[in-house]
Amino acid sequence: MKHDRVTRGALPALAVSSWSLHRALGLTYPNRPDHDVEAVAEPTYGPGRMTLLDMPRAIAALDIDRIEICSFHVPRRDGDFAAALRAALAEAGVTLQTLLIEYGDITNPETRERDLAWMEGWIDTAAEFGAEQARVIAGRRAPTRAALDRSIEGLTRLGHYGEARGVRVITENWFELLPGPNEVRYLFDRLDDTVGLNGDFGNWSGEEKYADLEAIFDLATCCHAKADFSSGVLHAEDYRRCLDAADAAGFRGPFTLIYDGPHADEFRHLLIERDFIRNYFTAARAVAG
Questions:
Q1: Short-list 233, 220, 216, CA closest to 276
Q2: Which one of 14, 110, 180, 261 is least enclosed by Cβ atoms within 10 Å?
């Protein structure tokens, strides 16, 4: 399933990741391939002031109707919690766009079978939650030909596993395996349509990153639109150039707002990102019109 891309100048769909609210959520529930047990809450970012079930309503209040959930923010995976989450989403009129599966390395020959099985279990959870997509990590090994080929084999397996359960599997330009566009394109030249790409603005750096992003965003069906707030305010030139790169490649959304800057008021900074993207496309629409 591919998201319909809007025309140039139209306002794109927006989503918010639970990572952007990690302070508000506070608690995390670590579950990894090497620690695949019922998760126990840890106050990683403090006690929190909202739960995951509160998130759909809180995001709807921002005039945004899509969310993404990190696997370490999931407190339970049983049927009762899945039903409660789906009810909270329906009540708020919000779509669960992606369950972000945050661990695993399918390029490690010693542990890949364990990690693939663990990811398949989380794809099952994505289906139970009603998620459109499940994001998996392409690999943590250096991008040798052997590691890339192991990733292709594993991603293909996961893609078909997700397709059988109504969940689109995606990966992103992230970690050691995919440091640049050559590696991303090698991967996607050999993957079938069951696997999609989430392009992430924040995973690559340097002046060359804009050209590198443009070189892969024709493949992307969704985007993590992370703005740089390291100086205390949004780095407008960087954000605009990232949007320019995606737009030049023909990408039209959806954009998932990612905030992990130094200021604690996550909701205020999500609004800054939201308005920047909407103003960018409103201005484009005015020029086109």
A1: 233
A2: 110
**What is the C-alpha R_g of the chain?**
18
- Any idea where the domains of the chain sit in the sequence? 14-288
| CA–CA distances in Å: residue 174 to residues 79, 130, 273 | 32, 25, 22
Helix locations, the chain, DSSP H: 22-25, 55-60, 79-92, 112-129, 145-163, 181-188, 209-214, 236-248, 266-288
Q: How far is it, in rounded angstroms, from Cα 15 to Cα 187? A: 26
DSSP assignment of 33-65: TTB-S----B-BTBS-SS-GGGHHHHHHTTT--
- The 10 Å Cβ neighbour count of residue 224 is 26
Residue 52 in tokens: 């995951």
For 114, other C-beta atoms within 10 Å of its C-beta total 15
249-277: per-residue pLDDT in tens?
999 889 999 999 999 999 999 999 999 99
Q: Residue 226 pairs with which residues in a beta bridge?
A: 258
- Residue 109 near residue 160, CB atoms below 8 Å: no
Instruction: Return the structure tokens found at 43.
Output: 């106050």
pTM score: 0.95
Q: Average pLDDT of the chain?
A: 95
Q: Is 14-288 a CATH 2.160.20.10 domain?
A: no
Q: Which residues contact 1 (CB under 8 A, 6 or more apart)?
A: 132, 168
Q: Tell the burial category of 127 from Cβ atoms under 10 Å away from its Cβ (0-12, 13-18, 19+).
A: middle
Short-list 231, 203, 226, 241, CA closest to 272: 226
Among 81, 80, 118, 94, smallest CA distance to 18 is for 94
Residue 2: band (very low, low, confident or very high) from pLDDT cuts 50, 70, 90: very low
Residues for the chain: how many in total? 289
